[in-house]
Amino acid sequence: MSQAMLAKVRKLLAKAEDPACTPQESAAFTAKATELIARYGVDRALLAARDPTTDPVGDRVVEVVAPYARDKAGLLAAVADPLRCRCVRRRHGDGFAMHLFGFASDLERVDLLFTSLLVQAAHGLAAAGVPAGEHPAAFRRSWLAGFAQVVGARLAAAEADAVADSGGPSVALVLADRSDRVQRRVAEVYPRLRTAAPRRLAGTGFGSGAAAGRRADLGGREVTPAARPAQGLTRRPSRGPPWG
């Protein structure tokens, strides 16, 4: 993401977190930051349609470590999908190696947002009280499921709005072609993929996690994407505070 765009996002989120802001003003600033990131993705896609060398298809590997590795992997998938990236989950030690595929600009957006959301989720979990008599791990897993579901829905809505504001059907065709190209790359590397069975979660934290997801900043405040090539693999552990 360009430094100018990142500066705009940071400024909006700084305003959103100002104690003098009303909840309504804070929500408006956060929504604008999300809108900017979505618009950036559409702009890069249109530029690449004219000059494919500006935004090649690439891949990277993100290591998601314990505790709650499967739940963190679910959050990464919830961020990647609406931003037109695809991820393949592979077991790696006591966690997972998430192999992400997408265009360079979209992989950058996923990295920016996922890193920020991991931190926000960790803080939200630390503040969420586990109901008496409930197993803490079960509560936290369901909390993270609610958080990821709402974040994914918010990102999908922001992306749809950016497409509508940028030209509608013609832009949608460009983005559909990009999604197809990413999917073809996944099929080339993993020709025999299987879909994981849905999880059954017993905890009661889903609603609390969903509420935290609605409050989450989706602009990546104070997070700068690391410089790395779009092609090839980059391996790094997920970051954030300890997960209680």
How is the biggest beta sheet arranged?
Answer: 4 strands, mixed
**Going across the major beta sheet, what is the strand order?**
2-3-1-4
How many β-strands, per DSSP?
4
Strand content range: 5-15%
- Give the overall silhouette: globular
Q: Give the helix level as a range of percent.
A: 55-70%
Q: Helix/strand/pairing class, anyone?
A: alpha+beta
Helical run tally: 7
Determine Rg (CA atoms, Å).
18 Å
The ordered string of helix (H) and strand (E) elements is HHEHEEHHHHE
Please, could you describe this protein's structure?
- The chain has 244 residues and is of the alpha+beta class.
- It is built from seven helices and four strands, in the order H-H-E-H-E-E-H-H-H-H-E.
- Strands 2-3-1-4 form a four-stranded mixed β-sheet.
- Strand 2 (86-92) and strand 3 (95-103) form a beta hairpin.
- Helix 2 packs across helix 6 (169-189) and helix 5 runs parallel beside helix 7 (206-215).
- Residues 220-235 and 237-242 have low confidence and may be disordered.
Which features does this protein show?
alpha+beta, 7 helices, about 240 residues, about 55% helix, 4 strands
